[in-house]
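[audit] Reproducing an earlier prediction to check determinism. Same input, same settings, fresh worker. If the tokens differ from the archived copy the diff job will pick it up downstream; this log only records the rerun itself.
[audit] input (169 residues):
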Amino acid sequence: MDITVRRARDKELDEVGEMTAAVYLDDDLLDFGAEDPYLNDLRNARQRAEESEVLVAVDAADGPGGKVLGALAFGAYGAPYAQRARAGEGEFRMLAVRPEARRRGVAEALVRACLDRARELGLHGIVISSHPKMTDAHRLYGRLGFVRAQERDWEPIPGMAIWAFTVAV
């Protein structure tokens, strides 16, 4: 599959939000399930697009209006969606890939687009936060050079451990 990564279009943002929320729910990545307050943030791709770069991956064979296969939000230090980034770093969050599009390079294409974007912006690294259950994502991050940064792990809510990973770009 030839994957194109680009900025989300306005007409895609509701789809991106619902897809992201569904992936997190279906993959059991929300510590409080359907009652998790983070679910509202996951659904609100419109706000993400105002405060970050929402990138989508589409099948290039479908043309410019192809179905969104995956998405994430990217921001540089100081942006609202770059909560863990330090000066000179970027951050991506809310990476989600539709189940039917997995194992086809969608997540890797999105992460590589973030690495490229960080270089374009003159950043020296990227930090990401990841739920400990996201083992497939952790393998991908490792292949792309990310390393665990335990000293930057955090708990957005007491008792909810979130792991940090970093990479130099």
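[audit] rerun output stored. Observation attached for the diff report: The mean pLDDT is 95.
[audit] end
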